[in-house]
Amino acid sequence: MKLGPVPLPTLPTPVLRVAYRYGHHLARGYWYVRRPEVYGVKCVLRDERGHVLLVRHTYGERDVWGLPGGGRHADEPAELTATREVLEEVGAEVTVWVELGSIYSDALHKKDTVTVLLGDWPGGELLLQDSELAEAAWFARDALPTRLAFETEFAVERLDALGH
């Protein structure tokens, strides 16, 4: 299945960033009241040097570095979610994934199961969805930022344990 680029809204980026921030606050309220069971993916992308791509979002904990990814649609395989999210967030088409494991959290009052997948960067320029992502950068595994999302810490531990 060939995926095409996802059309982005035509609102100015600063307006969309504010919408993401307020939307995230509204979602947190919903999660607190409803405690939904949700599923998502986080994507470890490696370049030819073995560096990993980390991103900072424009909402939530904006000073924390994490992995690209997002929520799974109903009955959507994790690999397809990963392919869709990476294309949407950083503009790359990655279709081969290796599952590194899953992690569960209820830190934000939702029952969140995240599948972490590993894929190789296909080359080319990063094309950030700048309304959702403030920044993206490649990091050597021995030079990661100090503020990492818990899924990122899990992913790095799994990479090390599996010898990737």
From TrEMBL:
InterPro entries: NUDIX_hydrolase-like_dom_sf, NUDIX_hydrolase_CS, NUDIX_hydrolase_dom. The keyword Lipid metabolism does not apply. Keywords: Hydrolase. PANTHER family: GDP-MANNOSE MANNOSYL HYDROLASE, MUTT_NUDIX FAMILY PROTEIN. Residues 36-162 form the Nudix hydrolase domain. The keyword Hydrolase applies. Its cofactor is Mg(2+). This is NUDIX domain-containing protein. It comes from Svornostia abyssi.
